[in-house]
Amino acid sequence: MIEVAGLTKAYGDRLAVDGISFSVDKGEIVGFLGPNGAGKTTTMRVLTGYVSPTSGTARVAGFDVQEAPIEMKRRIGYLPEHPPLYREMIVRPFLRFVASIRGVPRKEIDARVDRAIERCGLQQVAGRLIGNLSKGFQQRVGLAQAILHEPDVLILDEPTVGLDPSQIREIRQLIKSFAGAHTVILSTHILAEVTMTCNRVLIINEGRIAADETMEVLAARGGRTRRIALRLARAADGTEGQLRAIPGVLDVRREDGQEGVFLVEAEGVRDVREQIAERAVSQGWGLLEMRAVTLSLEDIFIRIIQGEAA
Ligand SMILES: Nc1ncnc2c1ncn2[C@@H]1O[C@H](COP(=O)(O)OP(=O)(O)OP(=O)(O)O)[C@@H](O)[C@H]1O
Ligand SMILES: [Mg+2]
After folding, report:
1. Does residue 218 lie in a domain region?
2. Distance (Å, whole) CA 178 – CA 275
C-alpha cells in the first residue's frame, strides 16, 4: 500500500530525511517513532504530496506521489501536525464542506458525514462551532475530515498530542478500529502509543530508520532485561544486597527521592518476581507494590543501537 525507496529530503544543507526505504502492507497500522526533529513530519509531508522529495520515490495506494499526485491524494486521508480546521465553522457543515471538496457524490454526503460523526464520537458536538470545542474534540474533527471519503491510507501526524488521558485512550481505540479497512501510519514520540495502537514500528532517528520491527520483535529486543519497580513499607539497610543475591537479578538501586522504592534489573529470560515476593514476605519488608517498568524510548534506542554495533 505504501512503498518508499531511498527517500531523501533536504532543506538547504540540512537533511531532514536521509535515504529511507520501507513498505507498508494493506491493513497494517504502523507507528513512526522518533524524537523531535527525527524527520517524521517531513516523511509524512512527502507521502501526502505536501513537499516533494529531494531524491528517491514514494508510492502510496498504487500511485507515485510525484507522477500522479491527484490520484494519490484521492486515496489518502491526512491529519497534519496542526489539524486544518475552520474555527468559525460548525462541525457538521464543515464536514459536509470537506466531503464535497473531497468529491464525495452529492447524494452520499449526508450518509458519509453521519458515519464519520458516529465513528469519531462527535454526535454531541455536531452543531457546535469548531473554535469553541476542546482540543480533544477538535482533534476528533480533524480525524473525521481525514476519514470522510473512506481513504485506503490514513496518515496521522501525532494524533494524540495535547489530549488528556481519557481522550488519548478513545482516540487510540478509534485509530485501532481503522485497521484492516484502512492502512494507517501514525507518528508519535511516545513508545506506549505504538505499543498500544500499532502492529509495527519504524524507529526514525536523525532522518534514518533505526529499526523496522513488528511489536513482538521489538518487545523481544527490549526483553533482554526486565525492569521491576518495588515499593516496600519497611526497607532495611540490607535490602539492596538481599535483592541482588536473588539469581537472575543483575542490578538493584534505590529510586531517588522516593522512600522505599527500588528498581530491580533482571535477566529477561527469568521471572524473578516470585522470589522477590517471597523474600519480601520472609524478611518482613512489607511489599506494597511490584510492577514492571516500561522501557523508555531512550532505553529502546540505546538497546537497538547497541544491538547494531554488536
Ligand atoms: N520547512 C523546513 N525548513 C527547514 N527545515 C525544516 C523544515 N521542516 C523541517 N525541517 C527540519 O527537518 C528536520 C526534521 O523535522 P521534522 O519536522 O520532520 O521532525 P519530526 O520528527 O516531525 O519532529 P517532531 O517530533 O518535533 O514533530 C528538523 O531538523 C527540522 O528542523
Ligand atoms: Mg513532527
Report:
1. no
2. 43
